[in-house]
Amino acid sequence: MTQFFDFAVLGTSLSAPGYDITYVPNLIRALKPGSEDTVRCYNFAVSGGNSGTTLSVADRVINLRPKAVLIETQTNDCAALSAAQSTSNINALIDQLQAGTSGTAIFLMTMNKVLGTQASSSRAQLETFNDIYRAVALAQGVTLLDLYPLWASATSVDIPDDLHPTVAAVTARSVPAIKAALQALM
What we know:
This protein has helices at about 25-30, 50-55, 60-65, 75-80, 85-100, 115-120, 125-140, 165-175, 175-185, and strands spanning about 5-10, 40-45, 70, 105-110, 145. By secondary structure, it is an alpha/beta fold. It has a five-stranded parallel beta sheet, sandwiched between helices. It is globular. The two termini are about 15 Å apart.
């Protein structure tokens, strides 16, 4: 009988299916080289998504009973929500997932830095919102995958539109850490 490893992704265009920038296909290949068909990803990430949109799919995720849930919303939360609303949404999402699943590992992920006008305008508070993830992960007892520091030396070659990294950059910088965390569950 085939043993499957199921995980869910909740987040933004940084993880959403159908985008040239998503790391998820490379993550699946890295998790089980040659046996990718035994890794199933339920991807609920959407372009423009934030912690409110992820909260709205919690029941669907719970019904799937994945082994792990990856959550990344802070890049859009800092542009659209207050810190208090983001914190409330993330805590509510974790509470729902923990109440509805048993043994599902929850990972809060900080993502890449932003550059240029993104860094100086709508997403100027990204580091503050990343700190929300750091605090919530600690308080809730879930795992933090703090990928943001891995992007300290990133340039416009890595993040050409100042917001979305290239597949090559995200595969080199973030995928190894995500892979290591998930492989520990396999």
